[in-house]
Design goal:
The chain is mainly beta. The chain is built from two helices and seven strands; from the N terminus they run βαββββββα.
């Protein structure tokens, strides 16, 4: 984990990550939490963190740079720490990617992600 600011709000430059249809919406944390709730068993994880929005490669082949956020959490029963990349289109989550180790979510700035467990 790169850095963490406990209890701080997401960066004020969120709206500037991407433009037009690709812009990360201001409610991105709630959208990501909802998407995760439909895709995984949230009770199987603890200590979730969400990255600050960044423009980064979201393709294994390096040809798809888009605004995105990553989420990672600790498996309750041990095992490899999963990560998920979220890409947005028209104010909604358009892709949820489970990255390989090569693509990963390393080197990002992380914040606590209480919305993960709030089921909003």
């Amino acid at each position: 984990m790169h850095s963490e600011s406990a209890g701080t709000a997401p960066s004020a430059d969120v709206g500037r990550k991407g433009t037009g249809a690709n812009a990360i919406p201001s409610n991105y944390r709630q959208l990501v939490a909802r998407k995760l709730a439909t895709a995984i068993d949230l009770n199987a994880f603890r200590d979730p963190k969400i990255s600050t929005p960044v423009e980064r490669n979201v393709s294994e082949f390096g040809f798809d740079v888009q605004p995105s956020v990553c989420v990672q959490a600790v498996p309750v029963h041990g095992g490899e720490y999963p990560a998920w990349i979220f890409v947005f289109q028209n104010g909604q989550v358009s892709k949820m990617i489970v990255p390989s180790r090569m693509l990963g979510c390393r080197g990002l700035d992380w914040l606590p992600f209480p919305e993960f467990n709030s089921r909003t």
